[in-house]
Amino acid sequence: MTTLIKLEIVRALRNKKFMFFSVIYPPVLYLIIAGGADSKPIPGMKLDMGLYFMVSMAAFGAMTAVLLGNSERIAKEREKGWVRQLRLTALPGRGYVAAKMAAAATVSLPSILLVLIVAAVVKGVRLEPWQWIAIAVGTWLGSFVFAALGVALGYLATGDAVRPISMLCYFGLAFLGGLWMPLTILPQWVQNIAEWLPTHAYAALGTAVEAGGAPHLKDVAILAGYLLVFTAGAAGLYRKDTHKA
């Protein structure tokens, strides 16, 4: 499994298109959205635009790496027979799923750190050392939820269908979860939906730390619940795919 994780990381780092959209694109988007924003608090929140979008774009970048990259690679590997070849080795099914999740989450770390660095250097965001560490660690750990979703989608759809399905999940969860704009300026029905979405809970980990507190137990519980559901779904779809082979 360790060998497979290393292989997946090397493959991702060699993919220039993947590296741009998962590592470079999020901090650029952060500067576009929050670059000209002032330091006034967002209506209904204690945070300004620079702080809010620092966390949301770090989460968005991590989602790009673990969700889109994972789902497409797995679907294509299934079609090419690579997964079938791996079944002939000593690698167990759970090892394959775990390796995909771990490799994807590892690659997401540079994106998270780069957004935080850009926020500090360009936008002048200032936080306590423990807050920077807590935001980085919390955002990275939370990305495992979407890595599991990426694995599940990779087994759910074919190589041709996986991209539109994953993009729909990707942009839908990002918008409804408040990554593109603060939920306080969106309609109430959107806020009601977002309260139970993994993306909202994901970003809330960092915004709670920015406000000087700890992540809320409700958000942690929501993410843990989605992680169990997505992981179980990925494992079940893997077993189903095995029976077809």
List keywords for this structure.
single chain; 245 residues; mainly alpha; 10 helices; 78% helix; globular; ABC2_TM; membrane; Putative ABC transporter permease protein; transmembrane; transmembrane helix
List the helices and strands and how they pair.
Blueprint: H1 2-14, H2 16-34, H3 49-80, H4 82-87, H5 93-121, H6 129-156, H7 162-176, H8 188-194, H9 198-210, H10 217-244
How would you describe what is shown here?
By secondary structure, the protein is mostly helical. The protein has one domain (1-244). The protein is built from 10 helices and no strands. α6 packs antiparallel against α9 (198-210). The radius of gyration is 18 Å and the shape is globular. The two termini are 21 Å apart.
Percentage of residues in DSSP E strands: under 5%
SS-derived structural category:
mainly alpha
Helix coverage percent: over 70%
Reading the helices and strands in chain order gives: HHHHHHHHHH
Oligomer: single chain
Count every helix, treating DSSP H or I runs of 4 or more residues as helices. 10
Largest sheet properties: none
Low-confidence runs: none
Global geometry:
globular
Q: Tally the beta strands.
A: 0
**Into how many domains do the coordinates divide?**
1
What is the CA-CA span between the terminal residues? 21 Å
Radius of gyration: 18 Å
Can you give the mean pLDDT?
A: 83
